[in-house]
TrEMBL record:
Keywords: Oxidoreductase, Signal. GO terms for molecular function: inositol 2-dehydrogenase (NAD+) activity; nucleotide binding. It comes from the Bacteria. It is an enzyme of class 1 (oxidoreductase). This is Inositol 2-dehydrogenase. SUPFAM superfamilies: Glyceraldehyde-3-phosphate dehydrogenase-like, C-terminal domain, NAD(P)-binding Rossmann-fold domains. Pfam families: GFO_IDH_MocA, GFO_IDH_MocA_C2. InterPro entries: Gfo/Idh/MocA-like_OxRdtase_N (IPR000683), Gfo/Idh/MocA_oxidrdct_glycsds (IPR050463), Gfo/Idh/MocA_OxRdtase_bact_C (IPR043906), NAD(P)-bd_dom_sf (IPR036291), TAT_signal (IPR006311).
Amino acid sequence: MKSTRRGFIATTATVGSALAISNGASAADDSKKLRLGVIGVGGSRGRYNRGGAIARQAAKFATTVAVCDVDDRHTAEYAKEFDEKHGLKLNKYRDYREMLEKEELDCVTIGTPDHWHVPIAIAALEAGLHVYCEKPLTLTIDEGKQIRDAVEKSGKVFQVGTQQRSSKDLFLTAIAMVQTGRLGDNVNAYVAIGGAPGDGPFKDTEAPEDLDWDMWVGPAPKAKYSEERRRFFRWYFEYSGGKMTDWGAHHIDIAQWALSPGETGPVKVTSKGKFPNGVPSGFNWSKFLDGEISLPNTYNTATEFHIDLTFASGAVLNVNHHYKREGDNVDFGNGILFEGDKGRIFVNRGKLEGKPMNDLTDADKKELEEKVIELCKGKKPGNHMGNFFECIADGGKPISDVWSHHRTMTSCHLCNISLMLGRELKWNPKTEEFDGDDQANKLLSRKSREGFGAKVATVS
């Protein structure tokens, strides 16, 4: 029954999904729309994470049939909203494995905390589903290899939620400016992504009764509950990577795409930075991330940093919590400065500016528009979620596929590993290892708590 129904969906997807994309939530024939399960919905007001927001975006293009969250409040709120607004009775789950086992789905959204992204995504792919996953996709470089292999094996569409890749008038145009030579040669990028807090220690408390805290912790080392640990999980290396994998997943992605379209990643990383006071000097991060030693309940990701990622071409991607250049009128806390022999441009989510932009002719603008379409693999930019469903319909590659995102996240993780070890590292982008550096290579992966790793795909 499952394979027959999915075969029918495959033949009708081009008509049904294209219709959904063209007119949003008002596609007339629900029987031609894909069946969607949403995992991690963050509550009606987006508490704790953006899962609810991306699930609602996906609901414009598919029929939501099931919702899953480890917090019963989130599940109930999301299900109630769909009942009141759309008259849909959603099946509710706490465990994503049970949902994947019982439901007849075609696609899922994943909006959980970061440390759960890859285990859930691999399980969904093994269940034969298309996947839209919130960024950052991975917790380690090894996870990137795992999810890349799983996508290749599955043949399914996999979109990562780095929406800046769909921003035609800002980030895509900035990339086009660099790649069409309008900044000249020897282009480097200077990125600022903001610092992180270093607060703590925090008091451990009892977890809310409607939250399955052990499942929330999942593959990470066992830990007691605190509101800070849950709400601000991005500042704990156990669950995320601080600002490096939060905003870095956006800005490092755009900068690397512009500077290195044909390479697999940097070859060297140098860094200096600061960690919160709760992290001792010379700390053994490998043992900590494997759950063998512990830290006080404090934020533990880097609070300040200045990092150079150097590519084989000689291009440098400079990553900072805040970037300032004395005497040169350059000072910003969030954004990307591209600078080459012929000039410089600055881009963030609010603007794209610089003299090279002011000097564009109509012919230049037309060429840039054509380059943007090329960057988008022939598709019209603008709607990131729509791009996911369009690719399901026509079998194309999404704008933020697993290959490009693994390359971006590798750079983000390299930044953190260099900060952890406090020294320069040499990276081999072909073998995806540090040459002759056992200490650094130990940080490419980490142990998962038994019963929660990426290999767990079904429930009995």
